[in-house]
Amino acid sequence: xxxxxxxxxxxxxxxxxxxxxxxxxxxxxxxxxxxxxxxxxxxxxxxxxxxxxxxxxxxxxxxxxxxxxxxxxxxxxxxxxxxxxxxxxxxxxxxxxxxxxxxxxxxxxxxxxxxxxxxxxxxxxxxxxxxxxxxxxxxxxxxxxxxxxxxxxxxxxxxxxxxxxxxxxxxxxxxxxxxxxxxxxxxxxxxxxxxxxxxxxxxxxxxxxxxxxxxxxxxxxxxxxxxxxxxxxxxxxxxxxxxxxxxxxxxxxxxxxxxxxxxxxxxxx
Length: 269
Prior knowledge:
- This protein is of the alpha/beta class.
- It has one domain (50-266): Rossmann fold (3-Layer(aba) Sandwich), CATH 3.40.50.1820.
- It has helices spanning 29-37, 82-88, 136-156, 168-179, 199-203, 224-234, 254-266, and strands at residues 3-7, 10-14, 39-45, 51-56, 66-71, 93-98, 102-103, 109-110, 122-123, 160-166, 186-190, 194-195, 210-216, 241-246, 251-253.
């Protein structure tokens, strides 16, 4: 069973439950001040049937600011990245943490199954596999999050939109950014790879978000080389990519959280 957990100062995809807030490393004094202003998470159903946790310093009735959507990994709990949202909270931000549509046997969620014939192919070059067939499950996940983004645009009128994903959620985040509908200014790919289903949108030059990629050199779940190739595939299309490798496995260490915080802040208007 794979769940994202805070362990030894980092988010890691591993077996086990998420420790209580009291057992996690404390935030800095600056971030603590913002954390006190973060509203208690509220759950709501999105138009496409997604269960969504909404939180952040911005009130529900406030407009503008930066909208940040966090997409969890395969078989994680739907609210898996709520604590990461709290770590990233700063003034003028609003976070949405949706749970994937598919329920796995362990009670976790998935954006798509990993069964043979259903799982989207990973690509490390700008070329569709010879046996490529679009993934219906990925298309459904894409459509569900796009519906959430469109609803959020109408509801909050954000100044900018960023999508952050971990593992399977990172693949979907990049796919959404390249799809470009609605426009997404920033995409963070945390321990993820590029999938074949995203290449048609890339070839059509539909979306050009700034992209941040982080990946552990000893990742045993998704190869480091595949993540490193994202930059070479996207840059010829004029898409700026920041690649941040780290020593570690399938996780989000504290150094990545700091880089991610700066990456998101640079996209705020």
